[in-house]
Amino acid sequence: MRLLLRSNRLPGRTCGPYQDVHVGVQVGSSPVDLVPGDAHEALWSVDVEVVDTAAGTDFSGPAVHGPRGERFVYLTWGAYDGSTFEMLRRAKIMLGESGISPATSRAVATVDLTDESGLPRCARVRPPAISWEVQDAPA
Predict the structure, then answer these.
(1) What is the predicted pLDDT for the residue at 55?
(2) CA–CA dist 25, 5 (Å, integer)
């Protein structure tokens, strides 16, 4: 299944105490596909395997983190000077709250990446800061 993460509301390259702010999807322990915090929009595409198990729907893939039943994708914020990335904070995109099922072929999460204080959004992202569009494959 293809998961698209998108945002058109980023906090800026300088926000609060942070400078050279960038955000990327965390794969393993590293952020990839970094986007500057002052970009007009951000878009990432992630492959996620979705399976039914006796315990319910489960997710896996290089960008999927967390224990069974609480899987998520991190959007990792950091200061990036062009060569070194220093992590500042992370946002959790909870897959179990998405409506994704094994029949899903594509899901789009639209995320407001700026929190109420004008800083990079972090912690578990909940509505209204996230909305989901799930498309199931034709039967």
Answers:
(1) 85
(2) 9
Instruction: Say if residue 74 is exposed, middle or buried (CB neighbours under 10 Å; 0-12, 13-18, 19+).
Output: buried
DSSP letter string over 16-82?
Answer: TTB-SEEEEEEETTEEEEEEETT-S-EEEEEE-EEEEETTEEEEESTTEESSTTS-EEEEEEEEE-S
- Calculate the dihedral angle through the C-alpha atoms of 63, 71, 43, 135, rounding to the nearest 10 degrees: 120
| Beta strands 21-27 and 30-36, pairing class | antiparallel
Q: Which two tokens stand for residue 73?
A: 């994708």
DSSP SS3 for 97: helix
Instruction: Give the structural domain span for 108.
Output: 2-136
Helices then strands (H, E): number in the chain?
0, 12
Query: Tell me: the pLDDT tens digits for 48-103?
Result: 999 998 888 999 999 999 999 999 999 999 999 999 999 999 999 999 999 999 99
Neighbours of 102 (CB within 10 A): 14
> How is residue 119 written in tokens?
């800083």
With H, G, I as helix, E, B as strand and everything else as coil, classify residue 91.
strand
Number of domains in the chain: 1
